[in-house]
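Hi,

Apologies if this is the wrong queue. I'm a grad student, and the batch job for Cytochrome c peroxidase from Flavobacterium nitrogenifigens produced an output file that my downstream script rejects. I'm not sure whether the problem is my script or the file. Here is the sequence I used:
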Amino acid sequence: MKLKHFTFLFILLSFFFSCKENEASKPTIKQDLLIDLGKLNNEIVQFQKLVTTNASPKEIVAQFKKSRLAYKKTEWAIEYFIPETARFMNGPALDEMELEENRSFEPHGFQVMEEMIYPEYDSKSKEDLIRELNIFQSNIKQLKSTFEVITISDDYVLDAIQQNVFRVIALGITGFDSPILQSSIPEAGESLISIPETLEKINAGNKSLSALKEITKKAQKYCTDNNNFNAFNRAAFISEYLNPISKNLKAFQKEEKIKNVKKSSPLKPTIETLFDKDAFDVNAFVLSEEYNYTKEKAVLGEKLFYDKGLSKNNDRSCATCHNPEKAFTDGLKTNVSLTGMSLPRNTPTLTYASLQNAQFWDMRQLDLEKQSVDVIQNKDEMHGSMENIHAKIQQDKEYVALFKKAYPKNTKPEAWQIQNAIAGYVRSLNAFDSRFDEYMRGNKNALNNEEIEGMNLFMGKAKCATCHFTPLFNGTVPPSYSKTEHEVIGTPSEASGKKLSPDKGRYIYNQMPQLVGAFKTPTVRNSAVTAPYMHNGVFKTLEEVVSFYNKGGGIGLGYEVENQTLPFDKLNLTIKEEKALVAFMKTLTDKKYQ
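Support response: The file is valid. Your script probably expects a header line. Output copied below for reference.
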């Protein structure tokens, strides 16, 4: 009997230690990453061999695609933990610029290689391509070295995975990083593979994990079965697959009691999907905590916004040029000076202006506080004096009371608070309640078939979303939404003319050749009520805007725009597609302007 008991105990202990041994032998998340980086390196080595041995263009393109798929498996971690290196592995094929120091760096990585091999590989590019592949391999080594020494905790892993889902929505399926080859759809499916595989390392028995596995598998199959870039139904893919994946990730996090990552980001850590009504935090763009948005500041700011006393002659307020009925624009081709002269630029909307880190068409100010001072003190616009305004406000009992509510720690109004309050009002102008928003939150009746087709065109064939990023539809780059981009599109001086706009845009402040004619990418939200369009108001209708892009921008029209960042090939949109595109843009109108 004792022998049987001992034998049973021995078997039990053996089983226990065997399980422990098996658990210990399973690769960790970090080890998996290093293995996947090794696989990526192998694909790059094979790519090098094919180029070196003068393989056929077909073989080279096929290997390029395989290499990109291997990268997509690791992208969630590379982009999140080591973004500086990621930029030179899969960033745009445009110079990386440090405007503060007037320096630029040439681009490297997949998108540069893509331009070398597609649509037709020329062996003359062989040396340059091999050079790019060598740089890429060096970056892989750097990634390995970094991942070997950093700690990857569960909270950061989950945040990185969620960010990657948002990356697939806003960049992946739009063709942002595969602009010529358009291999984005199968790559989007590959990007999702890591989700269940990685979360299993945290807890394979989690209740939400089985649902995540199922929906991820279906999403991958959807990409495989519908891999035509132009025909891909992005509206269905986001609403039926990617948004549910996001929600299940949040459920997994709650069940595992994994804390949110504390960071300064416009995306709130509590959101379930990228399209939640309160997904974005305007305080991410403020100078410091004391500048944070409050309702009390917005109330005070609204009074200041409509106060003509802020101008020199008491005849112009902020609202004079930013009419709330026109989504805070003025409906004019370009603004008008105090003396009635036309100014060179169009008045942009203030709606969603707080969700970008650069103001004005030329991006000369980085925050809303400086933007308001710039306008108030501009001799052509308001010609006011902040010193005089501050003095007047301190003598106004109503203002003093409102300042006390907005800034309870202060005994009297301070000059910086005037700017901050006006900015606070502008920060209150983000409604996120358009029909598009309703659709993305589950109301399938919010958009009709033509509008859905327009959304798919906007995020696909028409390439609009590669500059006007979802869901802000401005140039603030996802998924971190911390940097606002400018573009050179070759805007004409007149709609029917043959001359390029003489306005040099950002170049006026940073005299780098890449910035001649560069302007901030504005939001398309509320565009149906903010005509006319472009920095000079050259186009009166959205139809004209779509036609301009369809032709390939300035270069497509025959202008010499050496630094154009907009793809200059024709989009080949049909009349029906152009109409659908305009119909979709009209769904981005907030309720109060409908």
